[in-house]
Design brief:
CATH architecture of the largest domain: Alpha-Beta Complex
Number of helices: 9
Strand content: 5-15%
Strand order of the largest sheet: 1-2-3-5-4
CATH class of the largest domain: Alpha Beta
CATH superfamily of the largest domain: Aminoglycoside phosphotransferase (APH), C-terminal lobe
CATH topology of the largest domain: Aminoglycoside 3'-phosphotransferase, Chain: A, domain 2
Length: 315
């Protein structure tokens, strides 16, 4: 993600003496994203990703690190956290909680086709099934309580029409009922830049630091909202059907999930519109930071409200 906390080669070398992954040869900041400080680290043993956590605390982080360890042990393509000499997955570097994980092969696909979407849908369903045996519990920190609390800070920056849209959608979502929807571990941020493709195969799902326990269909909705939208922020039916059919070939939706789909895709759009508005108008100071334009998710939400999407994937 963005580089908020600077790490020098000398500091990294001293920190890595508590690990068995060799001596560092290169340290390169990763500029995309807005939540944590990330570096590519190349050592005499291989390539890794070092993360310094800017918001999450040492008490919160075991959920995410243990989840990645759990999923990788089930064969899912995700980063594997590296334990230090005390067999701990979490350390501290420059006053921040820090972890180092395996670096997966592949690159993000910026213009996905139906075949990419199908592979993502299939592995997302496998992740949901594998996560059912994960014992960790963490409610969604970016759910309804969060966006309701953030909205008053954002309203002063918005045009009247956008403020009305935001207020209206928050009220609408508050009236929906999630009780009875299948739940478990979800990624909650499976955008194109968080999936690596190595040729035709998925090389890895990355950046699990928004993962939580929530409704599976919400996770699918978030994924569709990024992978299956055209340039006008409208659903590309071919890509959406490819992703949904592949997902449901592994874990079919229940009838309640099918009924929830039209408002779940709106919930996914609302969540990222709010977070991008907040980061755009109320940014934290940082070095080499990158902010996402909130306008795309406003348009996605607006278009969904104008024409509710029909779920056409395999039931």
């Amino acid at each position: 993600m963005s580089v908020f906390t600077t790490v020098t080669r000398e500091q990294l070398s001293a920190w890595l003496r508590n690990y068995s992954i060799g001596v560092p040869n290169a340290l390169d900041g990763i500029l995309s994203g807005i939540e944590n400080t990330n570096y590519f680290v190349t050592t005499t043993h291989g390539r890794y990703v070092l993360t310094l956590f800017e918001k999450l605390t040492s008490k919160e982080l075991p959920f995410y690190l243990n989840l990645m360890a759990h999923l990788s042990s089930h064969g899912l393509p995700c980063p594997k956290p590296i334990a230090n000499l005390q067999n701990e997955l979490l350390g501290e570097l420059n006053g921040k909680p820090a972890a180092i994980v395996s670096c997966l092969e592949g690159q993000p696909v910026t213009a996905p086709g139906p075949e990419h979407c199908a592979r993502v849908g299939e592995i997302l369903a496998e992740m949901h099934l594998a996560g059912r045996t994960y014992p960790g519990q963490l409610e969604n920190l970016r759910g309804a309580k969060w966006w309701t609390a953030c909205a008053p800070e954002i309203y002063p920056f918005l045009k009247a029409d956008d403020a009305a849209l935001l207020e209206s959608e928050i009220r609408f979502q508050a009236r929906q009922h999630r009780e009875g929807l299948p739940r478990g571990v979800v990624h909650a941020d499976l955008f194109r830049d968080n999936v690596l493709f190595d040729g035709d195969r998925v090389g890895g799902f990355i950046d699990f630091y928004f993962a939580c326990v929530d409704c599976f269909v919400y996770d699918v909705a978030i994924t569709v909202n990024d992978w299956c939208m055209d340039a006008d922020a409208r659903l590309d039916r071919e890509r959406a059907d490819a992703l949904l059919n592949a997902y449901m070939s592994v874990r079919p939706f229940t009838g309640q999930e099918q009924a929830a789909w039209p408002w779940m895709v709106r919930a996914g759009a609302l969540r990222f519109w709010v977070s991008r508005l907040y980061d755009f108008h109320l940014p934290r100071p940082g070095e080499l930071t990158h902010k996402h334009d909130p306008e795309r998710f406003r348009r996605i939400l607006f278009n969904y409200r104008a024409a509710a999407p029909v779920l056409q994937g395999r039931a």
